Amino acid sequence: MIEVRFHGRGGQGAKIASRVLGQCGFLAGLEAQDFALFGAERRGAPLISFVRLGAEPIEHRGNIERPDLVIVMDHSLLREAAGQVFLGVGALTPVIVNQAAPSPPADLPRCDFHRVDMDDIARQAIGHAYLSAIAGAVAAKSVPAIKPDHLAEAVRAEISEFGASDELIEKNLSAARQAYALAPALDLTRRHPVPPDRTISPQALAQLGSVELPGPTIRHRGSAALRATGNWRIENPVIDLVQCKRCFLCYLYCPEAAMRLDADNFPHVDYDHCKGCMICYRECPTGAISRRSESWRE
Question: Which domains does the chain have, with CATH numbers?
Answer without folding.
Answer: 2-182 (3.40.920.10), 223-293 (3.30.70.20)
